[in-house]
Structures are given as C-alpha cells and as structure tokens.
Amino acid sequence: MDAPVDVTHVRLETPRLLLRPWEETDLEGFFAYASVDGVGQMAGWQPHENREVSRAVLRRFIDEKKTFALVLKETGRVVGSLGLERLERSEDPEPAMLGREIGYVLGKDWWGRGLMPEAVKAVIDHCFQVWNYDFLTCGHFSWNRQSQRVVEKCGFTFWKEVAYRTQLGTVERTRLYVRYNPRKRKEYHV
Ligand SMILES: CC(C)(COP(=O)(O)OP(=O)(O)OC[C@H]1O[C@@H](n2cnc3c(N)ncnc32)[C@H](O)[C@@H]1OP(=O)(O)O)[C@@H](O)C(=O)NCCC(=O)NCCS
Fold first, then answer.
1. Residue at 99 is within a domain
2. What is d(CA 63, CA 141) in angstroms, rounded to the nearest whole number?
C-alpha cells in the first residue's frame, strides 16, 4: 500500500547534498539538467524541449509534495531530483504494509561521484526511522547499469522483473528491488 508522504517541511543533509522541497526559483537549474540529451531517457522521459515543460513538471513536484530537490552544498545549485513514487509500477510486495518506490535523476555533469547513493541512503534513513515505512522499492530498466549500481550500493534486494510502459510509449524490461525496514523486521519475519 502507498505510504503517506509530504516533504514540505523536510530538509535532509548529507556530506555534500541538501535535500529539500522544490521551489519555483529552481526553474533554471532544473531546466539546465533536464534538457540534456541522454538523462531523462534513462528514466523513461524525453529531455525537456523548453522551459515551459520544466515549469509544468516543477509545478507538479511542488503540488504533489513527494519529490526532493538535490542541492549541491558546494555551489547551492540544483543537480537532481529524488521522488517517493506511488507503487503502481512496483505493485505491492506486501499489500498490508506501507511503502513507496524511490525514483531519481542526476544531472549528467555530476555523474560518477557517488552523489545519488548518498542521497538515496539519506532518504531511506528518513523513511524508515522518522516516517516508519515498512519497505521501499526501487527499479531500473534492465540496460541501465548506472542505476543498477546505485540500487546495489543502497542495499536493495532483487525482487522481480516486469514489463513497464514508459511515457515515451516504449515497453522496457524493468528490474525491481525491495528493501525492508530493519526496525520492523521481526514483525513480518523477513
Ligand atoms: C543513475 C544515476 C542517478 C547514478 O547517479 P551517480 O551519482 O552518478 O551514481 P554513482 O556515482 O554511484 O555511479 C553509478 C555508476 O554509474 C557509472 N558511471 C559513473 N560515471 C559515469 C559517467 N560519467 N557516465 C556513465 N556512467 C558512469 C559507473 O558504473 C558507476 O558505478 P561504479 O561506482 O560501480 O563505478 C545517474 O547516472 C543518472 O541520473 N542517470 C540518468 C537518470 C537515471 O538513470 N535515473 C534512474 C532511473 S531508474
């Protein structure tokens, strides 16, 4: 079952990143990385063709309250996003338990520095320790080795492979993973 989420008043800090809710003033930083070819496609969406596309997505991020902006502390710049999505793609590993699917994107200029694993681990900690979620899922297209590495570094366990229809109209073989909240482990024998 989808766990409740509201990032409005949440600020998470890692050594290099600040995770906070998106703001209208993030438009330029968002467009700068979301318009670059080869980034969104790895998560199933087209590069943003213009600022109006970014503005509409940004509006949705703000309204839906389930997506963090990733700000590089060194520069104050928005470099990516991390959302706690509904479980429609993952389905429910355990229908009686509460969880969400983590989804993420990092601007190309910042790939390969371990920034996304740093962000994902901070969100896992918050979801398990503060919000008391039962589990989190995460998934990647089977060819997306970069995302697979993030999932592996963050302690998820492979669950199953599904066919997922993307916003691009393609169907992608998608590997799904789950990580359970160790604080609640005894309650459901995993
Ligand atoms: C997936 C993604 C978030 C990884 O973030 P990151 O902070 O770069 O993660 P890491 O630094 O841990 O690197 C992960 C792997 O990417 C690969 N990689 C690193 N730098 C790279 C580069 N410049 N180009 C291509 N691949 C690179 C390496 O295989 C690395 O694994 P390793 O650490 O075992 O060598 C990022 O690549 C991204 O945003 N991609 C586009 C969107 C996307 O795929 N989202 C996920 C959808 S499921």
1. yes
2. 27
Q: What is the pLDDT of residues 16-27, one digit of tens each?
A: 999 999 999 999
pLDDT in tens, 65-87: 999 999 999 999 999 999 999 99
pLDDT for residue 28 is more than 60: yes
- Here the CATH number for the domain that contains residue 126 is 3.40.630.30
- Choose which residue among 67, 81, 146 to substitute to test ligand 1 binding: the one with the highest number of ligand atoms within 8 A of its C-beta: 146
- Average pLDDT value over all residues in the chain: 94
Count up the domains in the chain and report the number.
1
| Whole-number Å distance between alpha carbons of 70 and 14 | 10
Inside any domain, residue 2: no
Does residue 172 fall inside a structural domain? yes
The pick from 19, 36, 105, 111 for probing ligand 1's pocket by mutation, whose C-beta has the most ligand atoms within 8 angstroms, reads 111
* CA of 115, closest atom in ligand 1: 7
Report the pocket of ligand 1 as residue ranges, CB < 6 Å: 39, 42-43, 104-106, 111-117, 140, 144-147, 149-150, 153
Q: Which two tokens stand for residue 135?
A: 């589990």
Rg (CA), the chain: 16
**3-class DSSP string for 156-169:** CEEEEEEEEECCCC
